[in-house]
Every structure is written in structure tokens, then in C-alpha cells.
Amino acid sequence: MIKYLYPAFILFPISMAATAQGTADTIPAPAVRTLNEVVTVGTRSSGRTRLNTVAPVDVFHLSKIQVLTPQNDLNQILQYISPSFNSNRQSSSDGSEHIDPASIRGLGPDQLLVLINGKRRHTTSLVNNQGTVGNGSVGTDLNAIPAAAIERIEVLRDGASAQYGSDAIAGVINIVLKQNTHQLFAALTGGVTSRGDGGLGQLSLNYGAGLGKQGGYINITGEAYQRGKTTRAQNNNLIIFDQSALNNFFAYDFTDDPAASRKYDDDMLKQKGLKRDDFNFQIGDAQIKNGGVFYNLSLPFGNGKSEFYSFGGYSYRQGEGFGFRRLPSDPTVNVYTIYPDGFQPTTDSRIHDRSIAVGVKHKLGEWQADLSNTLGDNRFDYKVDHTVNASLESASPTSFKAGGHEFLQNTTNLDFSRRFANVAAGLNLAFGAEFRVDDYRIRSGEEASWKNYALVVGNDGTVTNPSGLAGGSQSFTGFSPDNAIHKNRNNTGIYVDGELDITSRWLISAASRLEHYSDFGTALSGKFATRYKISEVFNVRGAISNGFRAPSLHQQYFSYVSTDILPDNTLGQSGFFTNQSAVAKALGIPKLKQETSVNYSLGFTAQAARNFSISVDGYLTQIKNRIVLTGSFGFDANGNPVEAIQKIINPLGASSARFFSNGIDTRTAGIDVVADYNLRSGPHGFNASLGFNYNKNTITGDLHIPAGLKGQEQIFFSPNDSILITEGTPRVKANLSLTYSYKKFSVLLRNVYFGEVSRNSFPFGEVQVHKGKVVTDLSFSYNLQPFTFTVGANNILDVFPDEQVYGNSYFGVFKYASVQMGTLGSFYFARVAVNINH
């Protein structure tokens, strides 16, 4: 049922000269570009070229890209080649440090559908909730898929709920796995940043073999890499302590007499029995170890009328991220006898990602039938090290198993399609059905990871904490039995999709999809698109569609109490509560309902010359009742505690409470431009590719705030969360790739412009505009069959986002925000690849 994509423009070209043996003697540039390329995956109609489709799609040939690109994981590869795609590595953000949130056109990660070989890919079990882009959403872990297993990626930049499912509001990414046989590919990559950290070691292996006499194959990939942590904390010379309370410290950048101020600081520390190193922070990219295997299998039978197919894989990841440092002088969070110098906790992840799809295709006369089942599961377990449960005092362990979450999805599809050549200039008709089961659970951690042993229950039932000691594992509190939950639901959908060539110049396409959720009722989505050939080299196209997205099980049932920066400028316990909870009912927070959307697009494609093409597409996406996280109830807009709310949430171990809500309506408008130029002259090859995206997100109308919460608009939907949606991703992003090849030599020069973004990093901070920056990649390759040697750099000019203003830096600790290109800086790499045909 979810099977095809509308291919269109290929963003990055390559040039290859064949030897007498049929192998390439020049180095491929980042992708394949063929002006008359026939679209075979996507349109449900055979024979269409990428210039003649009705919707815009970028096609990236990863089997070529990974030879030259400095990036090693799928999120970062797409970040640097797709102008509409955005993904940043996060820092000090719990689970979001280990699974990077990703989006297109600035919409939510959960509004983007991911397919593999045209079949639905499961999402993760992680809810992004630490103020990152995509806050409150659930995405797909693209990095669980080995890049070496992928032949190409198709990014559909258009609303597609009627074609592929309700969560395709922003678009679709379709990952097509390799099918090649009798070929061994291996690559070994090493790299390090200019600061000597973030070291990378990666090994990729891919092998394909033929099966049977009817063209069957099996393609197997193994990939493993280790990425070291980076340190990007503010390197302040000075630490000044608040004389009234040693546990509060402030960093200043003195310009008058820093040497004297530093001596004053050091003398103060010495008097307290401390030293400057006690306050070093580890802030930067998490350490990641990742390994995975993937396969792609096809077995034709019945004299070519039938095919059995299967694909899937397993990924295991270990991550180590760093929380906020606890000072030795704060007895509420530190146990001095265990950590006399204080401590910085680590949040360790154990992530298992599994998937398998099996199916049978069969020809029934003129009809093509496809029956398949796809099962996917993502399990995320937390372990907290170098920490304490302060309420246990000296009896506290320093390591805790903190529980975790898991999401399983099983999808069964039955699809039929047929070409009617005699209807007008040709009609392709497809219809089918899908049955999907979602299953979500949270597992509680060991008792000491979540319990506060210092709480005292009075005779009247009130709960107090006379000692003030914090409970649970510091930095990441374990999931408690109150958080533990196991819920599931099912979804049934039927669809019909048709493409009619009214004439040889005029194509129309229409689709309709009816879906029923066991927990959210029934909805109908539709799409109409058309393309008209004004001439043989110039086409205009447009589309209109509507869609809806039911709240995920995660958004309905996720609850958790964690350590966060509270609105009163202190570290404390912040709670996430379900909309069915007593706390939500007491505050008048309503139950969640579905998001609805309307998408419009209009554009043109032109082949201005034999070796030059361009596409321009404008778009508008309107979303009503968008699901977002509320602000922190328990404090007013000035950060002062609200006693009435504190009385409700304090017994639950929290000082603030957040919820999911259908809080806002949004409008996303923009334009995409993609241009390709390719020139060959003898042994010389030159390729130029430009991708440009302008994207503006705005919040429209009034907040959907319950009547009982009128007057608390800035709490219901905080300015921080508003900025993340409207200005958290670059309004302008552009990619310019230049590739020159000569015989066995090739060079890639790529510039990516990340436009300005705005950020308010902490509740007590201020809105800061981070100016646009250009990041330059440069790499050189030499081919000596069967080996290819590559050296180069990502961000060779060592460009960083603007330094954060003091109010957004958490007292000078966070020098940079995780925006735009992230905080890695220059990264140098070397790669040896071998490609053997036999």
C-alpha cells in the first residue's frame, strides 16, 4: 500500500568514464544525474522521466556520495546535501543526544514519513523533550540504517497523507536498498576534529550475490563506527562565587584586569578547599558506538510472474552523554563523602533497533498484486553513571539502571496496480489496504533511580521534604512505577490512487485515503496534482492535498520527572504528565485530538540545455491543532512559584508540570530551487549543483488555551517553544557543490549556507539571533583499481554558530548552542575504499 514515490530532480551529479573492463577510472562525485533518467520507483506509471513528474523529489545516490563526503552517518549526510532537510547533534539533552531529531521544511520530525523500499519504517520510542528542535515530537532514527546498505534516497517535498499515510504531512523519505550482486564494497574511515577530540573510526562492508536462475539476489551490509565525545564548554578564565551561597556560581568575562580577578577567584576557591578543575564541564557531542547489519533479498519464481522479497536489519548503539555538573557545596544534590569535588553525571544509552519485512508480488493477469508485512521495534534503555541519589546520602550507589521505553509497529499491506494503455493517453490505477498495530511501553528503573527516601508523610497525608535532599539518580531520574505503561492501538486504511495522461502533454493525478484509528476515529484524506508540458523542455506542475495526524501513543502516554532548569533559574525536577492524569484535569488541560493540514504547491521544471536543468517549487502548508508541549506550570511568567499549583505537583516529586496540547495553528510557506549542470570533455568532467530552500514558519491565530487557563498564555505556550517552531531552523539554506574529475583524480568543493536562526536556550535567557554562516567541505580522491583513496575535511574553515549571549549560556558554560551546523568545528578524515567485481 505504501509503495511508491514521485521522483524528480537529482541534486548532485557525477561523471564517470568507463574502462574497457567496464569499471570506472574516475572518482564519482556526490550523486548520479542523467537528464533522461526513467523513473522506476514512485509514480505507479512506468516510463516517466524525472522532469515530467507532478511533485518535487530530490534523489541522492548514496552509493556514489559516500566515496567523497566527509560525513559518515545518514542524518549528517542528508544535512549537507539536502537544502530542505535539517538535523543537528544535541548536547546535554538526555535521549536526544543519542537519536538525532530530523525534519524537512522546518516541520516536526513526526510529520515526516520514512519508507524503506517503499514500506513504512517504524519511529523511535523517544520523545524529544529537552528543548531541542522537534520538541515534543517523535521521529525516525535514520542513523540506525547503515549508509553502505543504501543505493539511493528519495526525498518527496510535498504533503502525501492521501498516498502514504496520515503522518506524511511534511513529506516522505524513501530509502532504496542496494540490489547489486557479485560485488564487494569495503570502506575504512578515520577522522578527528581540529581540537583533537571527536575521533571517528568506521568500517563498512557490503556484498551482493545472485540467487537462483531467475535473477534473484541477496545483498548484505555490515557497518560499525565509534565516535568520540567532544568538549565545547565555555573556556572562561574566571569563576566568581555568589558570597551568599556557594552552590550558586557565575562566570564573567572580565576585560579590565582578568589576572587580578582570576587570582581573587583562585584564592576564594583555596579558602573553601576547592580547585578550579572541580568546575570543568563536559559539554559537546556525546560519545557513540554503533553497529548494525542490513539485508535485501529477492527470489523470483513462477517463470517471472511472482517474487518473494524480504529486507530488514538490526542496529545496536551505546551512547554516553553528559549532564549538568553538581557542585561539591550543594548538599541537596551531592553526597560530599562520595564526591568531595562534586560530579558531572553521564546518561548512557543502550538502543536496540530491529526490523524485518517479507512480501510476495504476483501477476494476476494484467494486475500486479503485492502482499507484505513489516515489523519494526525500537528499544531505548537508560543507565546513569557517576551520580548519586542524594536522599540515600552515603549509602547511595553511583550507578543506576533507570528504565526505558520501547515502540513496536507491525504493518500489513495488500496492494493492486494496473496500467490501462487504451484509456485516453494512458491510465495507471492502484488501490489497496493497510492494517497497522502500534505498541508503546515505558519500563520503570530500579527503585533507587527514582525514589526520594527523604520524603516524610504526615498524619494528614501531606508529603514534605524537611531535609531538602533530592531523590533519584541525579541528571537523569529513573522512570518510576507511576510512569510505567503499556498501550497499543490499531489503524485500518484503504486507498485508491490514479494517474491519467489526458493527452501526451497533460497529466493529472488523484488519490484518496480513508483511515480509522481505534482511539481517534475516522478521517478522509485526498490529493489532486497535475503537470502540463508547455513545451518539450518546460513543464508546470501543482498540487493540493489535505491530511491529518493522530497523536502518537508516545504523546498520549509519556510521563516522566527529570532534572531540568526551572523558570526560577535553578536546577530542579520538571514533570511531564499525561492529559488523562489528575494533574491535567486539575489544571483543565484537555485530551489530545488529531492535527489537520492542507498543502498547496506550484512550480515548474525546465531542461534549459542538454546538460542543464532547473526546478522551482513554491509551497504552503497549513496545520491546525498542532501538537506541542506546554510551558512549565508551577511558575508565573516572571519565574516566581505559584503556590496553588506547587501544592498539586510537589507531592509528585516535581516543581513544574508540562503537558502535550493541541495548542497552536501554524503556516509554513517557502520555495525550493534545484539546478544541475554537467559538462564532459574527454577525460575532464565538471559538475555543478545548486539547491536552495527558503522556508518561513509562523504561528497563526490565537492559542487554543482552555478557558480556565486564560491569563497564563506565556505559560501554556512559552516564548522558548514558540521560537523553536518559528525560528529554530534556518529560514534560508543553500547547497552549492562543485566537482571536477580528471582520469583517476577527483575533487569535491561544497559550500552550505545555513541561514540565521533564533534561540532562547534557557527559561531565564533572552532571544538571540544567530547569524547565517557558510560551511565549506573539501575532499580529494584518487582511484587505483580496485582502491579509492580519499582525504578531506568537513567545515575546513572551522566555522561555528555565534557565541551565545551570557543569559543563554547557563552562567557561561554553554559557549555555543546546537544550531545550524552544530558545534563540531573542523573535522578531518581519510578513507580507503575497495570495490571488487567478480
Automatic annotation (TrEMBL):
The terms describing its cellular component in GO are:
cell outer membrane
| Boundaries of every TonB-dependent receptor plug domain copy | 52-172
Kindly list the places in or outside the cell where this protein is found, as annotated in its UniProt entry: Cell outer membrane
Organism superkingdom? Bacteria
Membrane as a keyword of this entry, yes or no, is yes
CDD domains under this entry?
ligand_gated_channel
Annotated signal sequence is 1-20
Keywords assigned by UniProt, alphabetized: Cell outer membrane, Membrane, Signal, TonB box, Transmembrane, Transmembrane beta strand, Transport
Q: Which family does it belong to?
A: Belongs to the TonB-dependent receptor family.
Its recorded name reads: Iron complex outermembrane recepter protein
Please report the organism this UniProt entry assigns to the protein.
Chitinophaga arvensicola
